[in-house]
Specification:
alpha+beta, Alpha-Beta Plaits
Length: about 120
């Protein structure tokens, strides 16, 4: 079954520090997690970071008219930072993968949602 892991910062700060320049020789922080999940048989199908909520466009259709709004759908104190799509045997395995995700090491939250079969 496929699961969406949403990486969430539960207490984003108003001021965001610029990301440091990446060290091309450094191992990415997610690589050990990726290797562990692969060894456990969890398929890592896709993942990525997302832009901040101010970059969002919300789309609504009312009476056939498309209405666009800048920004997120709702105000929230949490901030979605990125996502991973995994494939594994069951929810227990998905929860284990989420508990080992590197975001949990700095206080991030990983929300697990099953993806409906098409």
């Amino acid at each position: 079954m496929r699961y969406l892991l949403m990486i969430i910062d539960p207490e984003p700060t108003a001021e965001v520090e610029p990301a440091p320049e990446p060290d091309p020789d450094a191992e990415p922080c997610w690589l050990p997690w990726h290797n562990e999940m692969t060894a456990r048989g969890v398929g890592l199908l896709h993942g990525g970071k997302v832009f901040e909520p101010s970059a969002a466009t919300t789309v609504r259709v009312t009476d056939g008219e498309v209405l666009l709004s800048d920004g997120p759908f709702a105000e929230t104190k949490e901030l979605m930072l990125g996502f991973s799509v995994i494939e594994c045997a069951n929810l227990d395995e998905a929860i284990h993968a989420a508990s080992r995700h590197p975001a949990t090491q700095w206080g991030g939250v990983v929300e697990v949602r099953p993806i409906m079969a098409e």
